[in-house]
Amino acid sequence: MTVELYLGDCLEVMKGIPDGSVDAVITDPPYGMNNNTDYTRFSGGHMDSIAKRGMGRDYWAPIANDDHFFDPSPWLGFDSVVLWGCNHYAARLPVGTTLVWIKRNAAAFGSFLSDAELAWMKGGHGVYCCKDLSMNAITRQRAHPNQKPVSLMAWCLDKAKVPAGATVLDPYMGSGTIGVACVQTGRNFIGIEIDPGYYEIAQKRIEIAQMQPRLL
After folding, report:
1. In DSSP terms, which residues pair with 7 in a beta bridge?
2. Is-contact 191 22, C-beta < 8 A?
């Protein structure tokens, strides 16, 4: 199993990655929504007071390239593709399968931002749901404002029928969750991240995953 990590703009880095070396693209790109990641506006406080109350980190720097529309076209030619946040750029996608992450208990629906998140998967027409509440237990330990559960990314790999030993590309690696899922399930991984801070976080998380026993 191999892991390759690159710091830089994914479109530039991809020029040096040989054609045919990637079996699947699974990624959570910048959605082009110019997301205000200062979540203190929802919690009624500021960073110092929130830290004292034990609520964890509530402010995040802007997400790189989230201030303009996301163009999915560079990734659509790959055989197997999953793109999260597809509702924000659906007009630029062909018909495909919809994956739904249900991330709250029913009692919490409508309480904060969205109750679920959507991904587009290449091919098919169906809608498939995964109820995964595991991020609720580690909210204060998350390393990225849009971080998703490792278990959810493993589900994506299975839904996309990515076999063990295949090579998965995440061109918008963030905190490296998809890389961790690949390491845990025996897939090769290529990750690209433009933000040096998140690149370092991803590198550390993946290194830790490599030292642990595989799940499969």
Report:
1. 193
2. no
Mind listing the pLDDT tens digit for each residue in 115-152?
999 999 999 999 999 999 988 766 666 777 788 999 99
46 φ/ψ angles, rounded to the nearest 5 degrees = -120, 175
What is this structure's pTM? 0.87
Are the CB atoms for 205 and 175 separated by under 8 Å? Answer: yes
CA distance 34 to 138: 25
Q: How far apart are CA 216 and CA 207, in angstroms?
A: 18
Q: The tokens 């995040």 sit on which residue?
A: 60
Domains, the chain, in order of start with CATH, read: 3-91+135-210 (3.40.50)
Distances (CA, A) of 90 to 29, 65, 124, 149: 13, 18, 16, 23
